[in-house]
């Protein structure tokens, strides 16, 4: 039970991606002032046993729970990382609800609370561009674990966790609104921040940097990228 290859094909440290500009946006005017910034982002190393701290006990408890229902740890979890002494489980999306329920209900785990859902867009990871990251907290044991699940742009579907953690209701809606991830089974997956007729998902890396005209006291103020050249 090693966790295997990291999602995206990485097996260890090294350069995970090269990002340009402040937000990684390409093909539009850069109004941030950081257009020539180049950052090389390292890929986190895949963890191997022993993980250290309480991580091995948690992995063993999860593996036992999966085996009890006829599953296997390596089938459900693609990889494990322990970067910055934080435990992250890269979960295959079809196994996400089961893994979350075991983490919540197993007496040895007891991750009773989901603190939120974060969306991430990695356009350089072909076939795994969209990520949903769930942050779980064990109030009883004072532990945290992160679940990360991925989906391609062409099939941006992830099972909802509202049946396991009702608090994810609003967080999944926000992630859908900004990143376009579709949480299958969500009771009311509608936009929560942007207008209902808004086109696109503003926090994706390929979303144009710019704006829309703003009307203020009868005057119309043009968006930043149309006021001057930022090439």
UniProtKB/TrEMBL annotation:
Domain NADH:ubiquinone oxidoreductase 30kDa subunit span(s) in chain numbering: 89-211
Cellular compartment(s): Cell membrane
Recorded topology in the membrane: Peripheral membrane protein
Chief location: membrane
Protein EC: 7.1.1.-
Family matches, as InterPro entries: NADH_DH_suC, NADH_quin_OxRdtase_su_C/D-like, NADH_UbQ_OxRdtase_30kDa_su
Source taxon at top rank: Bacteria
Catalytic activity as recorded in UniProt: a quinone + NADH + 5 H(+)(in) = a quinol + NAD(+) + 4 H(+)(out)
Top EC class of this enzyme: translocase
Pfam families on file: Complex1_30kDa
UniProt entry keywords in alphabetical sequence: Cell membrane, Membrane, NAD, Quinone, Translocase, Transport
Family, per entry: Belongs to the complex I 30 kDa subunit family.
Protein task: NDH-1 shuttles electrons from NADH, via FMN and iron-sulfur (Fe-S) centers, to quinones in the respiratory chain. The immediate electron acceptor for the enzyme in this species is believed to be a menaquinone. Couples the redox reaction to proton translocation (for every two electrons transferred, four hydrogen ions are translocated across the cytoplasmic membrane), and thus conserves the redox energy in a proton gradient.
Quaternary data: NDH-1 is composed of 14 different subunits. Subunits NuoB, C, D, E, F, and G constitute the peripheral sector of the complex.
Record's protein name: NADH-quinone oxidoreductase subunit C
Organism: Tomitella cavernea
Organism ancestry: Bacteria, Bacillati, Actinomycetota, Actinomycetes, Mycobacteriales
